[in-house]
From TrEMBL:
Keywords: Signal
Signal peptide: 1-19
Name of the protein in question: DUF4252 domain-containing protein
Domain of life: Bacteria
Organism from which the protein derives: Belliella kenyensis
InterPro entries according to UniProt: DUF4252 (IPR025348)
């Protein structure tokens, strides 16, 4: 009986995470062909290659080796952004697609002109996803970065890389 209960719980947890990933993918897919949006997808393989390149090129440079190790922890990045659009309804729509109990707020900055929200999804004490959603009267951005990070890793990524969207994380954490 315990064995079956454990299998059901595991299946339920996997399905919940998969459903959340599907919600984000569904949101991206909805606007993928919309010409108002710029779309960026960096695959896990590309991140692995970039990290490997830095690690192998850093025979005498410890900082480059550390950065290569850090970049190889990134399992993929998706960015959807649009300028010259009313981003507030898009922000609200994106927020409504998320299962709120799967994410923990890191930062929420709102004023009359814009909203910026950083959230993380953790599993087993590691950050599995960093999610940034911004919306204003002029633009919208959604960034989803998957990986296996510590918070120190995220701070280093924001300081030492030009990964799209991380400049916002850095400026908001100061």
């Amino acid at each position: 009986m315990k064995k079956y209960s454990l299998i059901l719980i595991t299946l339920f947890l996997f399905t919940g995470v998969q459903a959340q990933d599907d919600a984000i993918v569904k949101f991206f897919s909805k606007y993928m062909e919309d010409d108002r949006f710029s779309r960026v997808y960096i695959s896990p393989k590309m991140m692995q290659m970039a990290g490997g390149f830095l690690k192998s090129d850093a025979s005498n440079d410890k900082e480059a080796a550390d950065l290569g190790e850090l970049i190889s922890k990134v399992k993929g990045i998706r960015i959807l952004s649009a300028d010259k659009v009313n981003g507030k309804p898009l922000y609200n729509e994106a927020m409504s697609t998320l299962t709120k109990n799967k994410y923990e707020d890191l930062m929420d900055v709102q004023d009359k002109n814009s909203n910026v929200k950083f959230m993380v999804r953790e599993e087993g004490g590691k950050v599995r996803e960093l999610l940034m959603i911004t919306g204003s009267a002029e633009n919208f951005t959604l960034l989803s970065m998957l990986g296996n990070f510590t918070y120190q890793d995220l701070n280093m990524l924001s300081e030492k890389t030009n990964i799209p969207g991380m400049e916002n994380y850095k400026s908001k954490n100061k």
